[in-house]
Amino acid sequence: MKFITEEDLRDLYRKEPFTDYEIEPGTRITPGARQFLTDRGIHMLDHNNSCETIKNTENRKHTSEPLEKRKDLAHKRLYSKMKSMETLFLITAEEFLSRDVLLAQKMIHINKSFSDIKNILDGRNSSDNLCCQKCTGIDANNFSDNLEDCFEITEFHIQLGKGKEIILLHRLRCALRETQLDMLEFLDSNDDENNRCEEVVGKMNQIVNTLSQLICSTAGGEKCQKKC
Questions:
Q1: Using one digit for the tens of pLDDT, what is the confidence trace for 5-25?
Q2: Looking at residue 192, what is its pLDDT?
Q3: Pairing of the two strands 2-4 and 43-46
Q4: What's the pLDDT score for residue 93?
Q5: How far is CA 166 from CA 98, 122, 154, 162, 169, in A?
Q6: In this structure, what are the phi and psi dihedrals at residue 46, rounded to the nearest 5 degrees?
Q7: How would you class 164 by CB atoms within 10 Å of its CB: exposed for 0-12, middle for 13-18, buried for 19 or more?
Q8: pLDDT for res 88
């Protein structure tokens, strides 16, 4: 007796999504694999159990439409969150205009790179890439990795000459990390997006790491303050 696992089905689905799955005679599927088919509204034809085939066909009618609605809702929620992030970038840039024009310009540039993530999610090529400005803690080898903050932002930093700039940059960095979690949840629930997951995650990490470098330089650190 051959058993088909959830991982077997996931591999098949990644290669080419399907709406029907035929269980050959002498083959059984594990509970996890069965749940995988049910969650995606995939029609399961079981030659070993004709009653099960009829039942699965009925379930398909009830589950496929709600599943598509949930995916559509998750897609709209993510894009709405991204629009909010783009607005926060603009708000931050506007607040910097009267304080530090160079920082304001950098916010506009980073925002373009963030907006470019939508091109990746929509299956288009990425066109706006950030350049890695090498420092002691960040270089080309880890620029796309999920790195910890160089140092903790506390009440001490609001007392510095550019305390407001530091707090505004930190607020933006925190909001980006929240959005990144929404992206990961969306990508994880959509198998057809998995091939773009690594590129999206890497680009988000680049943006966060760039903000960390800006925070460090704004705080006046001539020497990298990243915790090793």
A1: 888 888 888 888 888 888 887
A2: 57
A3: unpaired
A4: 96
A5: 15, 33, 10, 6, 5
A6: -110, 105
A7: middle
A8: 95
Residue 187, pLDDT score: 79
| 201, 207, 213, 216 alpha-carbon torsion, rounded to 10° | -100
The answer to whether 164 and 226 are in contact (CB under 8 A) is no
Q: Exposed, middle or buried, 85 (CB in 10 Å: 0-12/13-18/19+)?
A: buried
Give CB contacts under 8 A, 24+ apart, made by 223-228: 223/136, 224/135, 224/136, 224/137, 224/150, 225/150, 225/151, 226/135, 226/136, 226/137, 226/138, 226/147, 226/150, 226/151, 227/148, 227/150, 227/151, 228/137
Q: Which tokens hold the place of 24?
A: 């050959």
Phi and psi at residue 22, in whole multiples of 5°? -100, 120
Q: What percent of the chain is predicted at pLDDT more than 70? A: 82
Tokens 């058993």 identify what position?
A: 3
What the block records as the tokens of 155 is 């009440």
Best CA proximity match to 218, nearest among 97, 100, 114: 100
Q: Which residue has the tokens 């969650």?
A: 39
The mean per-residue pLDDT over the stretch 44-54 comes to 58
The tokens for 3 are 């058993």
Interval 197-217: pLDDT, tens: 788 889 999 999 999 999 998
